[in-house]
Amino acid sequence: MKIVFSDAAKERVERDLEPNKALVLDFDDGVGPFSDEATCTLDVAFNLIVVDPEKISKDFDETVPSNLGQVYVKGYAINQLDENASIDLDKYLRFQLKGDSGMIDPNMSLQTR
């Protein structure tokens, strides 16, 4: 499995991703320090989070390689992703998570914590 950031998405994330920071792809299910609440929905929701490595909880027990380095994920959430995942920016500058099967999340946020 891998994640490829488009040039536009990579450029935007790199503004916040300092050398001493880590990148998290958070499956927003209410588990972990980055989910404020979980809602009952049929939609899959992810958030990109730039964070100090010491703030990453044990919930993020896997990493996925990307063209921005290792991305921390919840191991059980990997089944929500396709083998070849990509992250792009749309014309409204919203992050979109896509895979071999199509759109996974059309409206991801980028947060710094």
From TrEMBL:
Residues in Core domain copies: 1-111
Domain of life the protein comes from: Bacteria
Transmembrane feature ranges: none
Protein name: Iron-sulfur cluster biosynthesis family protein
